[in-house]
Please model this.
Amino acid sequence: MNVQSPPGKLKARDFATDQEVRWCPGCGDYAILKAVQNTLAELEADPKNTVFVSGIGCAARFPYYMETYGFHTIHGRSPAVATGVKLSNPKLDVWVVGGDGDMLSIGGNHTMHAIRRNIDVQLLLFNNQIYGLTKGQYSPTSKIGTRSPSTPMGSIDNPVSAAQFALGVGGTFISRSTDILVKHLSSVLKRAHGHRGTSFVEIFQNCIVYNDGVFKHFTEKSVQDEMQIHVEHGQPLLFGKDKSKGLVLNMEEMRLEAVTLGEDGITEADIAVHDETNRSLATMLAQMDPPIMPVALGVLYCESAPTYDSSVHAQIEHARKDGEGDLTKLLHGGQTWTVE
Amino acid sequence: MSEVAAIDRPNENRQEIESAVVRFAGDSGDGMQLTGSHFTMTAAIEGNDLSTFPDFPAEIRAPAGTTFGVSAFQINFGARKIMTSGDQLDVLVVMNPAALITNLADVKPGGIVIADSGAFTDRNLTKAGYTESPLENDSLEGYRLVKIDMSRLTVEAVKEFGLSNKEGLRSKNMWALGLIYWMYGRKRQASVDWLKTKFAKMPEIANANIAALNAGHAFGETAEMPAELGTFEVERAQIEPGVYRTITGAESVSFGLLAGSQLAGLNISFCSYPITPASALLHHLARMKNFGVVTFQAEDEIAAATAALGASYAGSLGITSSSGPGIALKMEAIGLAIGTELPMVIVNSQRAGPSTGLPTKTEQSDLYQAVFGRNADAPMPVISVSTPSDGYDVAIEAIRIATKYMTPVMVLTDGYITNASEPWLIPNPSTYERFDVEFRTDPENFHPFLRDDKTLARPWVKPGTPELMHRIGGIERSYDTGHISYDPDNHQKMTDVRAAKINGIADDIPEQEVEAGAAGGKLAVVGWGSTYGPINRAVNNMRDDGYDVSQIHLRYIWPLPRNLEELLKTYDQVLVAEMNTGQLRTLLRAEYLVPAEGLNKVNGKPFLIGELEDAIRIRLEK
Model:
């Protein structure tokens, strides 16, 4: 075992275990692992109070590579396992890691309920739009027409939008980043960690073997500026090279439109300002799809709300305010009688 | 007017009887469960031993007057030890025709049938399937039929309280209770007190119910009923001295889980999903927040099981509960608990199946599921509850085994035990031996799967403990480090040690005793779970008649007690009586090659004593 006692500040490598990382060479998961380890070091997280919980899938191997507490569970159930961990000990800092099949297909129900309850965990969804570990079948986030071993003529069902799903079930923190935007991802992870409640982070992650390049239409360097908008609370929604483009809110049609500054008399004053407490705006941002609109990355939505785990324990404290329960008294509750 | 209007005077001419079986049956809305529980409470207070069996419809609000909306409550009370809720009814009280047609077959020949004639309207008769009123033809000739227009008499009794006809009729269950109280010379005070407390904020409702209760009682006294009905006296039973209460199986298991967690020094995280008949456990534990009990109504059965396991991983006692179909959904999570060797308790309130089956009817058909029902070789201890009060000790034992051996443990109870009640000599919690859990905190030579030499249990580490960070999971673990291992020899070794750990529990549980009769002889009747009562009564009755028969009743289903094979082989015949098609019988045959035979039934109802006596007689007279 790689036992570490924290003498002062930990480095990213102190959060790595001695286990050989077994993702395919070039997998996007490596970059995410690095970003998470960096982030924990920067946050000065305490490894002994940190728990990684995962389900099944490539992404779900994550806990084995983190020098913290870790629980690799069963397919789709990691949000429910993490709920139990937090109910038992709300002080633990819990990260839930899984892929799109794990969290939106077999575990979609648990993901929904963890988010709507606002359990205080970071929920990292590695979305590569494919089943990797089972060798390449299409997933619930795959685009229509995805050819895979199970859909040789192309998939025919509508994909789910992870961020819209999380917004729709009442999520209090909805964010997005990609595996290759190392700095951006770290800043999003830090925000997620700071949020009390379910912090939903969708990370677009490239599967080099079964779905290589599926996100390149907005992640490749040549198109990045035009096809990504990095949203920040209180800042105008600008994007493009030299921030020459922006989003305006078409009030008549209740939708966002991409515009170019200087064209048709558009000035920066016309550009919508990001308000991460506005769920409608967040929903519109989550809906945007290239090539007509850029992909919105960053913290789309964030609101402060009570967490389920703290409310559960608040009720317990309330019930105890007149003293701890007495088992003998409980057993003698109701009608009793004495036999001489 | 005093609250207890008629005087509770002892009737000199009461016929003394040893025990009686009374069933109240009516529409779901007639309050039969409440009536039955009042009669139970009063019988207990007056010193009888007793056993009850509530029988309610699967529908929440079935259309009034229909046969599938009939709700019934049966009580067997006596001056002797009462082992079951009774084979046949001495008295059946029916509040409508549907209740009569669905319950009449259980009345013994010559038994008393008391019917609310006011509810035998053409409409109600048609709904129940009668073409003419059974109260007016000779179809009830073999019974002592008492027709009383309870509906009208109740409305009259409560009219001074200004209630509507409909509201007034709601008290007719209390009228019927008053009449039965009079029949058995019972005091009304406990019911009066209860009504006053229950309806403290609605005094007119309380008063109307009390008036109806008194009116029913007075009717018995003044309406020259004795000739028709007879009045009876059931003396106090010989019962061990102490303080008693009535307890249902759901209550005893919930109390036992709390007591067991305290003995282990753990907090409970009880994670469940509503399902009949298991939900009562969640309801009871949800009210124990002042003990620090966390209850979680999960989004589904799987989440309930996995959240419980997550809680155990974090250092609480994770408990989940369900009934057969829900348990099936939990099995993958239970497999993970077996693989990661974390403690967990799973309470299975069995019901008739397969699939949805008969949700409100009892069965013992999850033994296979409990012992064998997982993918791969996944052994797990299984223990069973035998009577409504037994759940207390069984739940404590489940927690002891789970925490000592780092394993999930399944507790098998059933729909009958869950809802049935009996008097319980309230135990003193401080007389139970503690089994405090020692979490591992020492980093010296720590590996998450290094085992205790004796128990073969691995250490339990709470996340949050310095220097013991480690990873566990569902992929096969290396024998001691717990790291992922795909090594075939390691898998063999791990499979063997998991089995050895569970088998070893046999050395830590009591040897099997003979419940009634002696070791060795012509016939042993073997049972488990809720068949305890009827088997015990039947075996004792037959022994009194000179038959060489003994009772062996198992608490431990897996692993089996270490002396069981030897014990079974001391009998010429072994008869396994269970409410399934032969699951324990198969297990005993497979384990011991004993020629066990089965006595099996699955009609949703507990064994009758008579059925068991017949089976014993046939085997000993052939």
The two ends of chain A are 63 Å apart (CA to CA).
